[in-house]
Amino acid sequence: DRAAIPALDAHSFPILQQEAHPGKRLVYLDSAATSQKPQCVLDALLRFYTRDNANVHRGAYALSARATDAFEAARAAVAGFLNARNSVEVVFTRNATEAINTVAYAWGLMGGRLRAGDEILLTVMEHHANLVPWQMIAARTGAVLRHVPLDPHTQLLDMEAFRRLLTDRTKLVALPHVSNVLGSVQPVAEVVRLAHAAGALVLVDACQSVPHMPVDVQALDCDWLVASGHKMCAPSGIGILYGKERVLTDEMQPFLGGGEMIENVYWHRSTYAGLPHKFEAGTPATADAVALAEAVRYLSKDLGGMPRVHQFERQMARYLYESLSQFREVTVHGPSWEAAGADGRAALCAFTIRDVHPNDISAIVDLEGIAIRSGHHCAQPLHRDVLKVPGSARASAYVYNSSEDIDALVRALHGAVEMLGAQLTLVPL
Ligand code: PMP
Known about the structure:
The protein is 38% helix and 16% strand. By secondary structure, the chain is of the alpha/beta class.
């Protein structure tokens, strides 16, 4: 009885035009892991290699100048997309993981900003990418990790606990904008305000927000923000590190040395290039950056802009959440729709089904052509110690999905559970 939600754009994605198995349409519900790519992005990649490929920032010939211009235009496009003040605040990396490691090493270690006894304040919902690098830096510097818990009743970030854990020892706060397991949106602007008042800098892991909603780094006032191109319609191999110009300039020292990042090199020492090149050692992923700019153009223009994408995803978030939580045997992890409030949940649900292993769920629904993820989604501590389940299944939607895809998932879940000798019953209204 709920209104159907058509996809924003399913036709531009050639990979979705195939069958997953004979007679079974591919229903792709794993965009939190990686997104599919529209034809225009595939074309941009091919066009660059067909017409414009040369190494950047090196040659004096026209082709190299064209490649360099395209690469730097891509940086400007990303800066505009995030509303950065200046495009030198955008550093290209391989992925979000490398962006976080760059901050950990270049700021915490090479920049000497972390000392024994300093505290790094994370949350219990961190992806391993925003946990393991800090463990490594803590081991080298003697800094200490702390983790903000969830409110046990709502599964929202416990802001009271955050206030308590934030002290004059806290040098850094790092948190996900949107959790890739709980689907919850964190109050990042509030976290930044409190952290800055306590003298700490803030890194926002925006992997699950930048592809799905407007993100404005100046409005958030965060010191760093990271995202991965491959989750926002761009190729894999290109990631984004945004950093405030002052922080990138004054508080960080490069940790990868080599070509592109230098000014003058002598036998025993070197001077470094200015921003952003000093953090981009070696030949960059030029074509992938150019294709990322095309993805940004696609989201901003062809799809009508991020407010429209977000509006669509809010409907999908609700449809997905309600579709899964109508069954007594299904637990959707993370805050309830009511607890999360308006705009509080992304179009992503990690769930478990009583007496059924999540791997079995995803393997059986795959027979119906439905791609969902199962496992710990790179958040082992969250699953083990907070949710207290060995893993979960996760369905996540993007601009090419429709409510029909979610209906197909629910039908397949019924089939899977029956195959395993259990059943799904409706929660009485
Ligand atoms: N943080 C979050 C919240 C993520 O969802 C992911 C990707 N699963 C990452 C970090 C790491 O992204 P990548 O593997 O592209 O570096």
